[in-house]
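Troubleshooting entry. The earlier prediction with magnesium ion gave an output that would not parse, so I re-checked the input for stray whitespace and re-submitted. Clean input:
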Amino acid sequence: MTDKRVLLDEIDFYLVTDSGLSKKGTLSDVEKAVAAGCRIIQYREKSISTKDMILEAEQIKALCGSESIFLVNDRVDVALAVDADGVHIGQDDMPMDAARDLLGPDKIIGLTVHNVEEALEAERMGADYVGLSPIFNTSTKKDAGDGIGPESIRPVKDAIKIPIVAIGGINKKNSESVIIGGADSLVAISAIVCSDDVEKETREFIDLIQRTRSQI
Ligand code: TZP
Ligand code: MG
């Protein structure tokens, strides 16, 4: 596998899948988002068997091809089974060092953090990026807690060198505050997968982020 970590620095928009919220299904969402230029996909699936996850992950990997980074949420075993580009893990998932031992130095590991302290620790432990969460209140992840606000991004940005991926309640209307706040990349779930036209929505989101960046 080529080392796709270099792509992490160039990514504006990051899609996380959600089969429960999706209108057209996860595979369709990934296909459309990649077609629209989304260069990182996280497969987040909590409701099917491991066997079915592996089958679906194989298909998502094929849809991502060599253009888009393909990460698996939580499941280091699934990422290894399909030779994904890496994983995204939370504070209560497999510890970073154990995940790194299993995945090796070339795979991408993203870690969810909620504050400067956790971000510093994530960087120290060798995370490739942090997912700062939740920026706004969201009903997509029931235990996400209260939104920390876009003003919480800058102190984290000033503390670490690895990219910050902002997640939680982000949509086209509030994206400007997240970009100005200092996020390197914006994640959306419901703002994309609940749309009737995932390709158009993704394209508009990416255009908006790029336009906003060019103006600040
Ligand atoms: N982790 C923190 S908030 C969140 C996850 C998976 C859900 C984000 O979903 P949405 O629909 O973009 O608010
Ligand atoms: Mg998790």
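This one parsed fine. The mean pLDDT is 96.
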